[in-house]
Amino acid sequence: MPEPIRKAIVVGASSGIGAAIAKRLAADGAYVAVVARRDDELQRLCDEINQQAGEERAMPFVHDVRNRDELPLLFQDIARRLDGLDTIFYAAGVMPEVEPNEYSTDKDALMIEVNTIGAMAWLNEGAKRFERMGEGRLVGISSIAGDRGRRGNPAYCTSKAAMNTFLESLRNRLEVKGVSVTTIKPGFVDTVMTKGKPGLLWLISPEDAAKKIVSASLKNKNTAYVPGQWRLVGTIIRSIPSFLFKRINI
Predict the structure, then answer these.
(1) Which of 4, 160, 230, 248 could form a disulfide with 146 if both were Cys (CB 3.0 to 4.6 A apart)?
(2) Angle at CA 226, nearest 5°, toward 113 and 179?
(3) pTM, to two decimals
(4) Domains plus CATH for the chain?
(5) For residue 112, how many other CB atoms are within 10 A of its CB?
(6) What one-character-per-residue DSSP string does 166-221 give?
(7) Residues with Cβ < 8 Å from 239, sequence gap 6 or more?
């Protein structure tokens, strides 16, 4: 039997996949620190979780992942409030709309800061702690978009590709020390990022995604596509030669 998740941090928990992961963990008996920028959404999430659990299972922590200076003390405070820590989920992410003829460094920088550097900062804090402990789980919510450079949103693909490589590097460093690092690559999930976009293949709910993500984490998988059929798609996409891939309108 895999070691259960008892005390976890979910970064980017105010909505979407992150909120669904927090609910799933609490329903399974875990205590969860939920982290995000929006205080009202965090409080609403915690109230819902705690009411259903009949006890305080979720604690809110307001934080902008771009504010790295406050992270070390915040991380220590969360671990103290939880009275321990065994798992970190990084689910924060942004994908502003980018027009086909738009080249916005401001939007690009935002995606790199939140999707990549924010993940590095939180996962590094977890890595330091878990390496000392000789156990723990780090889980990064990336995207199938990171498998190739697509014309629709270059910086988003870049941010997720960088996250994938960072997670793989952490895994290679930490696995021998008893720490599991899992890369999650969702396809299309019914969140604000996909709202209003027609014809999305294999669209799933945040709740279904969270169930699969938590399951993959408990199994200490290296990489998990969500849902699983995206693995074949990802394999095919990665194998297409560049001279052909650049002709495909994706």
Answers:
(1) 160
(2) 65
(3) 0.93
(4) 7-245 (3.40.50.720)
(5) 16
(6) HHHHHHHHHGGGTEEEEEEEE--BSSTTTTT--S-TT-B-HHHHHHHHHHHHHTT-
(7) none
